[in-house]
């Protein structure tokens, strides 16, 4: 089932060293039709990760470098007036590609950040009343620097809710760093990635992910986890209905990655940790007490248990 997944991962590892776990999560998000937000310090390979994925699947790729003066039209496109024939021509922006890397998203203004909301949800952009569909498969990979760094804006909650995952690439281990340095000095660290899959391969795998079964008790388990985030005294705003659907789809992708055509409770729990944590909003009291979102999600997963399926 996941032979092509292994081919894709192996190909990306020629360029991304020592980050197998991050690659697994990124590929699962691609198969689950989700978007990914990478948050980390500069220089750990966030851009290379997105480019390696696009190159490996022979998909169109665009990079949008966000700055404080980036405008919404720089992302979605503009309508240009042609004085010769006195008509307007719609020019689609760089967001109309398969894999879109929006680099340092939190260095541009909230107005410009909001330009991504429609396309991430509806898979289309609207310019002067004209809808332009993005090519399929479509995926947005956003990167941002930690909020403590200078010149950053917080992402709006509506923007965060449209990212299926929020990941940290992290520094490589000493062993991975040594391997990276050796391959770099020997000229074996690939600066580009060869294509090993096609767009229709991803489309087929996405459909196979949707066919992964989730039993009723697992569906109820997922609902109870989401409900627990909405009824926690330390959480001001719990997970949205969109978050629930993202969690279920990502759980299916995790099962598919594990070469199963059915989900197990561990898939739901892992998906909850990855898809819900960045979406919840803590109360002011929780923030003052230095409670973290990760801690609360782990606590909720310890409290909410999956019931046995009476039909199994």
Report on this structure.
There is one protein chain. The protein is of the alpha/beta class and 312 residues long. The chain folds into 2 domains: 3-185, P-loop containing nucleotide triphosphate hydrolases (Rossmann fold); 211-303, Helicase, Ruva Protein, domain 3 (Orthogonal Bundle), CATH 1.10.8.80. It has 14 helices and 11 strands. It has helices at 3-12, 20-31, 46-56, 73-76, 110-113, 117-122, 157-160, 174-185, 199-210, 216-230, 241-257, 265-276, 284-288, 293-303, and strands at 36-39, 61-65, 77-82, 87-92, 99-103, 124-127, 130-133, 139-144, 165-167, 235-237, 281-282. It has a 5-stranded parallel β-sheet. The chain is globular. The two termini are 24 Å apart.
Q: How are the SSEs ordered, and which strands pair?
A:
Blueprint (H helix, E strand, L loop, with lengths): L2 H10 L7 H12 L4 E4 L6 H11 L4 E5 L7 H4 E6 L4 E6 L6 E5 L6 H4 L3 H6 L1 E4 L2 E4 L5 E6 L12 H4 L4 E3 L6 H12 L13 H12 L5 H15 L4 E3 L3 H17 L7 H12 L4 E2 L1 H5 L4 H11 L9
Parallel strand pairs: 1-8, 1-9, 2-5, 5-8
Antiparallel strand pairs: 3-4, 6-7, 10-11
Helix pairs in contact: 1-2, 2-11, 9-11, 10-11, 10-12, 11-12, 12-14
